[in-house]
Amino acid sequence: MATAAGKTGRSSRASGGEKSGARSGAKTGPKTSTKSGAKGAAAKSAAATKASATRSAAKSGRDATARQADLAKGLDKELLLQLYEDMLLIRRFEEKAGQMYGMGLIGGFCHLYIGQEAVVVGLQSCIGDDDAVVTSYRDHGHMLATGMESKGVMAELTGRRGGYSKGKGGSMHMFSREKKFFGGHGIVGAQVPIGSGIAFAMKYNEEPGICLTYLGDGAVNQGQVYESFNMASLWKLPVVYVIENNKYGMGTSSERSSAKSTELYNRGQAYGIPGIQVDGMDVLAVRAAGREVVEHVKAGKGPYVMEMLTYRYRGHSMSDPAKYRSKEEVQKMRTEHDPIDRLRQTLLERKTVEEGELKEIDRRVKEIVGEAAEFAQNSPEPDPAELYTDVYIEARAAE
Fold first, then answer.
1. How many domains does the chain have?
2. Does residue 23 belong to any structural domain of this protein?
């Protein structure tokens, strides 16, 4: 994955001491031996490797910045600022949700999207009102990206009547027919056949839309995923399968759980489904690739697999301490790959905006999130009678 901003640093070179002195037992310097010499050589080698990696990271960071600057060419200021604001809204919303969970205001499971914002924001900018979205349980960012109101999402997290599912769905089960967002699903991989079914309905009813169907790297080995691939290919369904590869399925790295884990975009090959791998930490790279894929699917050429190389900064859920990875790993991703910082840097370096404009966006986003949190805490809890509603659809007499 290309880095967003490389860092250079000095590496110290270890050197072994020399034995000196005429008299026996003189302690004028550290003794050398074959063993200590080997240690010195190993230290030098390690230092050289570290220095090489630092130079490589710096070059990669410069390359990534240059690539994003190239992608930004031809995009108007309004679009770039909208992408920035949409990502920032998700980030601040999720940070507030994490805070409220810690205060005991949000119960149950809560899976945060912090770090992965570029994926859904970039792809959402490629589709229109005719298109649908379905995803897994890490879904708050997808809801906000589709245009669902922050107040309604936060109120659902707190289990209040003002939430999108009237306080009965919680974090993992929210829907909006108006925005064509079909969940939020708590079962790993369950949304994949649902997304395929939505795409089938669109084709059957001769509707112009497509369905973006998101899944994580932890879901790619589910049998229902491949049953969906098979049907989607046979019937050339208008569906894009978006694999958000954040490197960990719960607490297990994809390297340990999935064969050829670096090539998940090829999982559709056996079914004749093309795939592409994208830097999911670069919103402009996601948008550029997404536009081509959406055009392919809308042209009636069948499904497509997109693997987004991304990363979540928090644990699998709020109850996950994430001890399966180091703090250094997370910090490195934050420092070198953060999607919001990367776009911010591009906007400022290209002089697309002034610093004050970005600060104003940040102020506005914080205000939106603050109002959502206040609404979520003041909205009344559902009436107990709601337990018996929305269980079955109301029967209608045949016309």
1. 1
2. no
